[in-house]
Design goal:
- By secondary structure, this protein is of the alpha/beta class.
- The chain has one domain (21-133): Ribosomal Protein S5, domain 2.
- Helix content is 35%, strand content 19%.
- β2 (40-43) and β3 (47-53) form a beta hairpin.
- The longest helix has 22 residues, at 77-98.
- The termini are far apart.
Length: 141
């Protein structure tokens, strides 16, 4: 049978959160967020993903860096924090399989959707967005 393990099951903890916070470093400053905003974007129903490959001359070029942001459009402080927590948890599940070392990722929460969307759908959104970002683009004629 293909049953999903219960979140309270200690034996399943490794499969639910395969990546710890120590494995992903945060984007340290505004300049990195702005650089990601000028790079590739992928909008999904529950979030917007911005991603960019760091240059070899930048610090920690082999690590994955993650930034999270939710504007006041998402809601009050409680809703913004909940949206960021959900995005962080979804990213920790999706990044080991679909993320690439040496890239910066910024996840942006969407109004009324990031908090209300089911967590499985939110993880699927992150995985799909990462897959699309890393798919080679077709050259323009």
């Amino acid at each position: 049978m293909n049953e999903t393990p219960e979140p309270d099951d200690p034996s399943a903890a490794g499969s639910l959160l395969p990546l710890s916070r120590a494995d992903v470093s945060p984007l340290p400053n505004r300049r990195d967020f702005l650089a990601a905003a000028r790079a590739r974007k992928q909008a999904m129903p529950g979030l917007v993903l911005q991603a960019r490959r760091r240059g070899a001359d930048e610090p920690s070029s082999s690590a994955i860096r993650l930034g999270l942001t939710c504007s006041k459009k998402v809601g009050n402080a409680v809703l913004r924090n909940r949206a960021r927590r959900r995005l962080r948890a979804a990213a920790m599940i999706a990044l080991p399989s679909f993320g690439k070392a040496g890239w910066d990722y910024v996840l942006i929460g969407r109004r009324d959707v990031t908090v209300a969307r089911s967590f499985d759908d939110l993880v699927a959104d992150v995985e799909t967005a990462l897959g699309r970002i890393h798919t080679p683009r077709k050259p323009r004629p």
